[in-house]
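ok trying this again, last paste got cut off
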Amino acid sequence: MSIRRRASLGAGLWLLVGVAQATAPAPGADSAAYDRLFQQAMDHYHLPGLAVGVIEDGQVVYRRTAGERAAGGGAAIDADTLFKIASNSKAMTTGLLARLVDQGRLAWDDPVTKYLPEFRMHDPWVTRNIQVRDLLIHNSGLGLGAGDLMLWPEPNAFTRADIVAGLAHLRPPHSFRAHYAYDNLMYVVAGEVAARAGGKPYDQLVREQVFAPLGMRRCQVGAWRPAAVGNLAQPHMRAGRGNLPVREDGDLVADVPSMAAGGIRCSLNDMLAWMDRAWLRPDPERPWLSETQRRAVWSLHTPMPISQRMRDWDNTHLYGYGYGWRLSDVDGQWKVAHTGTLMGMYSSLVLLPDRRSGFVILINGEGEAARTALGEALQKRLLGADPALDTLHYAAALEREAAQPRPPAARKPDTSARQPVTIAAAGPRAGVYRDPWFGEATLCPADGSLRFTAAKSPLLRGRVMQSGGRWLVDWDDASVDAEPWLDFATARDGHATMHLAAIDPDADFSYDYADLEFRRLGGCP
């Protein structure tokens, strides 16, 4: 894969991760235990950067940051550095909607078409009956991550109007309100509902209704210029034992369609203000949300499956989705939480409301395991568990899980013995294809090889290769880390078709290749 070809570029960069800045904890706070957990995560996972904040009984007791905004750049992360919070944006979207409900501009059981008459689902009955609340709780009937290729990888040329129109072409694999399946497109729709109900663009409403009243002074949404804002963490991919900056910000951060689902950036200080002022310790004289809407947002609406890990680690009995939050019990305590994941950026926010406590983790690298291990250790610390249950304890547990033998169908096949597909071998498979929601893609000769090119997603471009008897695409950009198989067939009406399928069974679900149904329109131009 192309990721291996670039690994050597960052092989020594991990040595620079030690650039750090620590913000002093609250007076009298015992920060040594948190320092230990923090440093274990930095050292064990060789993270490019990390920011952690902890609240205990309504007081910020710990802030610490370490690493660089961009590996090798020398600029240290601090408590005002902006990170992509990814899906932790969802709770800000639902908070905005709850404010609009408090203001009488919206009701949770309003039909979506009241605000978006152009909105269509694949099933007309669902179109008529889907309510605002259904946009937020992952019960739409869509498959896991359906349509996410219109959002990511960024940048791309899809608009919010494209996404709303594309929903009609996504076939649901199960019934409306039947069960939980995480999706992002419904949050894009929710952002548009907020804009219509509030009478202003989504980004303006978020700034006015969320950031300003809560004092989240550094958060950014919509279009903005990095040079004017400054102090931005950049995403990284792993490169050997080091970290390589990828998809770095240019002169303009665009008004991306994913804003309401995962497009907000905030600093550690901003996230602590969000936790404290909106949720753990709201102002009783001027509450940001009414108690009625706080209960609505934090009520379990869609049950979620409980993993064996949750049972073993946390003794969890109940688990489900509220409005932009995951709700569960952990060692007998009520937990309200969410995570955020984008290429090269990971976040986690955990609240223990009955204790007025919680924490936030922000990582600007490939940090899934680090987020899990450090988050579990911080949670146990807040619950007064055995100090031996530290970051390294949970890191070892994750590594034991990963070492367990897997059935062949769950393993990524070896495609290293791949060869380019020749232009002559392409034959009638070459041509222009179209999918009803994703748009056009070409399978055509360029630069002496057969190449796949998506018209509206410039990062989805690569050389067509053959491994065994199948074709695949080797993406040009190493940060696009889920390669697809290409399969060809003939539809009943005689049209040639092309389908994609993720090679790696563990590929991120947002690479929703299985939802694509390309039909050949004609030969290459």
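PB: full thing came through this time. The two ends are 29 Å apart (CA to CA).
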